[in-house]
Amino acid sequence: MRVSYWSNSKFAKALRKVFGLPPQLECGTIEQWNEIEIEEKRISPIGIRVIESLNTVQKIVYWIPDTFSKAVYWVSNWKNSSHVLKTSVKVGSWGDLTSKIPDALMYAVIDFIEKECFLMGSWDKEDVKAYNDQSYIRRRLFPVKIASSLREKYGREYIKFQIDNGADAEAYGEILAAYSFAKNRYFRFDPYEESGWNEIISIQGEGSFMRFTDEQKACYKIMDELEMEFHRQTTEHCTNLVKHRGFLWT
Fold first, then answer.
1. Cβ(151)–Cβ(118) under 8 Å?
2. pTM for the whole thing?
3. Which of 25, 93, 190, 194 is deepest in the core (most CB within 10 A)?
4. Tens digit of pLDDT for each residue in 61-119?
């Protein structure tokens, strides 16, 4: 599998010197890249063609491992249903968009923190060494299972590292807030339990529905308040995730 392009190799750098071309930029703005491309074509258009042709040769040499790599990715994506967003709706069941949209965003932010950010933040950590030491194929198809708590720990550490090194603190802060809401609130919200309704019914019995007691009326009022606040928080976090979707590179 190709790690880098041959046109960026040491051999390519040596060829640049042979053709009198300037050193390639390690990084730069679009304007800087455009300027150096113009300069390269002015100095030696043939040299540029020779160096860029190295990538064509590389494709031929690596055709078999590249094809195998693509096959592994395809199986991995199929296995993990990477082409769709998850919801809590069961296969064969119906679900309204009013619930599927927030479901998808909440699952997505969990995956972002516990998969993508975890990978970036855990590569040199001893307590997940077994995970990091896996072969490429095993990692893609049959990865060692890691506790959600460890995934969260290193995912959060990576976000903190980004913020400490100049990344958008507001965006990442709101993403972390959405993650906490998804993990600790969204999928656990039960207005009947939190309002005390379940406890009252267990004491008064199912027949008390016919009487609709004062306690039940009070529970309904509490449930309304809980659901309104839950809806407000869900809307806030979903809005922030859509607003900052450019940071969710999962």
1. yes
2. 0.76
3. 194
4. 999 989 998 999 899 889 888 899 999 998 889 999 999 999 999 999 999 999 999 99
